[in-house]
């Protein structure tokens, strides 16, 4: 998550040259270079495509911009009538440069796996309706409660577009796809079933059918006890977790042969080195009887000292299961 982000000076150097973030996402040679920066510096095991989940609202015709120190801004008024074409193929042409980035990366990836991604449909809808980052998420909560049909219609379009988007990423060379459902934690009960489980299930089953060898990572962030419902209902090769996830997941993941990804809280990278080291070892020990990908539970904080990242990577690489 944002591993190519603002804590790396080499990323900031490129960012300085291209101030328009969306243009950067859609510039194949720069996006490929940024994607490879963490590999060159740390030799981590996976390459994550440099792009953003908000290219989907953009390709559906919504105005999307990223303001300095403010995050994304989207034209907040949006209905299905604002979408020009009902053919995902047609809409995806606006972001076809992403596939060129993937092509460049797949030529350079060597023995590393390349992760492509998209947002979960509800997370995308959240940004489309809120118009950007939000603290209380009042607009989306209200939208889901009072305009259920419109919400369902938009979710369907986003889901269909995301499936086509991921299929194209696979065709151009990604090995894994990750679906970032960053705002899954906002919903409960039937709404969770309707807006989180259902669309993620559609994405997963269509992708698995299209390309059985592509690995699917789901990240329904903040799902709490519903992480269990999620892995029981949605096909996952990997489940990415955060600290709200119950430990019960370990047993269930093991029985279903699902790999767990996570879950070091990013704030530990800002604090005391000894505490960070202990926490890293604690996580390695905790998941030693599971298939486990060591990762953070959310995006890295821009002020993270690089030496702390180096320390974690060294610890993980040198760790031996006893
Ligand atoms: O690790 C990587 O760099 C991979 C590429 C990637 C980015 N965003 C680049 C990025 C990925 C996988 C994402 C996912 C993403 N984008 C999510 C899901 C994960 C999560 O964080 O919950 C979401 C919700 C977004 C939407 C988004 N993009 C927001 C809310 C912001 C602003 C965040 C902030 O802290 O200011 C972005 C900007 C963004 N996306 C940056 C990067 C490297 C920072 C942009 C900059 O250079 O200023």
Globally, the shape reads globular
Number of strands: 9
Strand order of the largest sheet: 1-4-5-6-7-8-9
Q: What's the story with the biggest beta sheet?
A: 7 strands, parallel
| Poorly predicted segments | none
Structure class: alpha/beta
- Give every kind of bound small molecule, once each: coproporphyrinogen III
Query: Helical amount among residues, as a percent range?
Result: 40-55%
Strand content bin? 5-15%
**Overall pLDDT:** 95
Number of helices, where a helix is a run of at least 4 consecutive DSSP H or I residues: 14
- Helix/strand order: HHHEHEEHHEHHHEHEHEHEHEH
Radius of gyration: 19 Å
User: What is the first-to-last residue Cα distance?
Assistant: 30 Å
Tell me what you see in this structure.
- The chain has 322 residues and is of the alpha/beta class.
- 49% of the residues lie in helices and 13% in strands.
- The protein is built from 14 helices and 9 strands.
- The chain has helices at residues 9-17, 21-25, 28-42, 55-59, 88-92, 97-108, 121-130, 138-146, 148-172, 189-210, 226-233, 249-255, 273-286, 306-318, and strands at residues 46-48, 64-67, 71-74, 113-119, 176-180, 215-219, 238-240, 259-264, 292-296.
- A 7-stranded parallel beta sheet has the order 1-4-5-6-7-8-9. A two-stranded antiparallel ribbon has the order 2-3.
- The longest helix is centred in the middle third of the chain and has 25 residues, at 148-172.
- The protein is globular and about 55 Å long.
- The structure holds coproporphyrinogen III.
């Amino acid at each position: 998550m944002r591993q190519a982000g603002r804590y790396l000076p080499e990323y900031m150097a490129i960012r300085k040259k291209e101030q328009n973030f969306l243009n950067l996402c859609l510039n194949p040679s720069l996006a490929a270079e940024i994607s490879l920066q963490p590999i060159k510096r740390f030799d981590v095991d996976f390459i994550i495509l440099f792009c953003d989940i908000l290219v989907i609202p953009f390709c559906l015709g919504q105005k999307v911009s990223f303001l300095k120190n403010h995050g994304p801004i989207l034209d907040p008024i949006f209905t299905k009538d604002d979408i020009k074409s009902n053919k995902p193929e047609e809409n995806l042409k606006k972001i076809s440069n992403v596939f060129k980035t993937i092509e460049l990366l797949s030529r350079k990836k060597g023995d590393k796996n390349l992760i492509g991604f998209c947002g979960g449909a509800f997370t995308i809808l959240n940004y489309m309706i809120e118009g950007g980052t939000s603290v209380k998420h009042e607009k989306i909560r209200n939208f889901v409660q009072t305009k259920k049909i419109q919400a369902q219609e938009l979710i369907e379009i986003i889901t269909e577009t995301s499936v086509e988007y991921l299929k194209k990423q696979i065709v151009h060379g990604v090995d894994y796809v990750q679906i970032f459902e960053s705002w899954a934690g906002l919903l409960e009960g039937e709404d969770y079933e309707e807006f989180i489980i259902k669309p993620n299930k559609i994405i997963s089953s269509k992708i698995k059918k299209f390309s059985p060898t592509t690995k699917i990572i789901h990240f329904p962030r903040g799902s709490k006890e519903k992480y269990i419902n999620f892995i029981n209902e949605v096909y996952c090769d990997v489940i990415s977790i955060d600290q709200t996830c119950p430990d019960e997941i370990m047993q269930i993941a093991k029985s279903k042969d699902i790999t767990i990804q996570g879950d070091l809280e990013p704030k530990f990278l800002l604090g005391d080195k000894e505490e960070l080291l202990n926490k890293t070892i604690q996580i390695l020990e905790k998941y030693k009887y599971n298939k486990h990908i060591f990762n953070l539970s959310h995006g890295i904080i821009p002020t993270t000292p690089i030496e702390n990242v180096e320390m974690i990577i060294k610890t993980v690489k040198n760790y031996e299961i006893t």
